[in-house]
Amino acid sequence: MTTSVASMDRWITDTEISPRFPYYTRANADEVGPEPFSPLGWSLGWMKGCIPGVAEGFVRFGVVRNEEFALDPPEVFGNWGGYFYNQLSLPRTMGVRMPGASPDAIDNAYFGDHPGVPPYTPHPDEDDEAQSAKLAETMAWVMGAEGFPEQVRASQMAIEHVRTRPDLSSLSDAELVARARELAGPALEDAWTQYCQSALGISLGPGAVQAICDAIGRGDDAAKLLTAVGDIESAEAPVLMWELSRTIKNSSWLTEQFDAGTEGVLDRIRASDDSDAATFMQQWDELIATHGHRGPNEWDLRPHSWTTKPSMPLGMLERMRNQDDSKSPLEARARGAATREILTAELLGLVEDDAEAHGTLQAGIASAALFSQLRELGKNSCIRLIHEAKLAMMELGRRGVERGNLDDPQQIFMLLDEEVDEFLADPASLGETLRERDAVFHELADLEPPYIVKYEAGVPPISSWPRREQGGGDSVAEGDVLQGAMGAPGVTTGTARVVLDPSDPGVVGPGDIMIAPTTDPSWVPLFLSVEGIVVNVGAVGSHAAIMCRELGLPCAVSVIDATKRIPDGATIEIDGSTGKVTIVALP
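and the corresponding structure tokens:
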């Protein structure tokens, strides 16, 4: 077993590069896998659940036929050095086959303006009239759908697994593993099949809205037409946390408890008979019961969640309680919805004499709203299932520590799925192997993986990958403009605060603009502590953009190397409708 990345060529979860779909990219992959995936998270949750589900989703959407690509080895996603890679060639095939689309349009929708994406090279098997016809049917469905019952069913299935969770401490080791394998395998495959279709569909409506707005000279208004659509499940957690933060702010007793530090604050509140303590605990229990699956890197089985590490949401509450009441997400949503309704009527009126433009704009607005809701509904269903599998394996890991076979419960995730039965039979036999892997895994987290992987070039040896560094991007000067892409409308000025880990947000708070590499739902409560968001990657249909539009925050996405180029403490202005970030003053 290699004990250091300094001499590593490959890691135990590395996948093969597909010769048929030969390009892979880290662009827009950080939203799914910003850190290395654990061996168990990849070999179980992804190889047995996510990847088969995505493959079936691509087939049902009409992109490809089953026989056109393989699952073993997978031709849907890649993983090298533990890092997740998006397929670039497969979505481009969709661009070729989808009527009115193109590979360039797909690149822009999924990867924004990120540099380094290899140019499209046609493949002789890509032109397919039958698949084009099926995609045309799918496009008509996406632009005219009033719902997606299968996505709703998958969401309800996941919630039911949470609701009926057994007492994990009473299950045998084998029963814990069986539960994890069922939920991160077949159940997750089912959820991903529906989520993949929702995620593919989200690009069509916003694209149509932007095209019509550009054509009538109102391109900057496109984001406003996609704002505050309501029923975005991932926005529910920050709303509940906002209410909790107001409970703290409006209670002198609770404020005193948080002023004393978040360590032990739950124990202090639980032990009190103060009426405000009872109110807080009722709201807290609702938050964890409904959204306890949230946490950084939540697509992996290994990382802690709000359930397993309550200090994470408590730390966010500590920041949020200082925010002014005027930043209420409910009030922001109401303002955004009012603006959207006024603009919708106005812009539809401008094209009322053009039946095709009018119909396209109307359908695009409705589709963008629906599939924004479906995308987040689908994401939550998948994360809930991963979380349930996580909790089962965490219990097994806890027992491993108790029995002296592991040093830390999370070392259980250094197992490959095919090794789990061996561990159950003889845990001590793998103890040293798991400790060594754990050490290497933490080293992998310090590396910068290649941005693009190509079949013809292969994957550089892991030992040649550079270490991650904060800073190091091109320097900026006062007055410089960093051009990103539209995320969420609004203009704001504030102090740049670079945040690389939502569980360690530093001093970010009111008056600040958060600069992040990317975001997943675990970041969203931090949004309510600041004035705006800038992210390195993403597009109009990515998570940060959807959430900011729902919460009424300006957001610029695909601002290349923003976390490296924008100095912490700089004064910046962002325009979320254009994606423009202006350096007003340097610290």
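(Above: one complete record from the training split.) The mean pLDDT is 92.
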